[in-house]
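Hey, quick one: can you model this chain's 3D structure?
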Amino acid sequence: MEVQAKLAMDTGVVQDNTDSFRDLFTTYYPFVVRQIMRIVKEQQTAEDIAQDVFLSFYHTDRSAIEHIPAWLSRASIYAAYNHLRAEKRRTARQEKEAAEKEWVAPSSEDAWMEQDAIVGVRDVLAMLDERERTLLVMKYSGFAYAELARATGTEVSSVGTLLIRAKSKFRKLYDRMRGAET
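Sure thing. Here's the predicted structure for all 182 residues.
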């Protein structure tokens, strides 16, 4: 009641004296923050939302607004509820992402199969000669052909051919080893 009376007085004062944004902001900022605080319950959040409301108010044609306190009240309530809806969506999205991460987590069987494949690859790499093993490991670690040539002591122009041969030999050994297991 007291606030409404003050607002009515302030409205008259503001409309009579000046229409500058600064005066309107100074006059109505506490009112807008209180309006938002009724909905969001956090002072800092209410002040942030109030700034957004006044930013929107600043970009609005004030001559088209019939009653500035009513416009600010409605805008602050809408902004507060929009904030709550956005927070609710963000929380739901984070919970969904957390649930998906749990869903993606590999089972113990998957972890065992992955570990078995790693051991198989290491065994096959151990069967290759040193140059083939170095070429394959460095290639799949992201090294360039020039670095592969320097590490193996070969010409850069020969790296592609040696790499293809190493891949082919690896594939044959791996298939033979996997075929022998099944």
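One thing worth noting: The radius of gyration is 35 Å.
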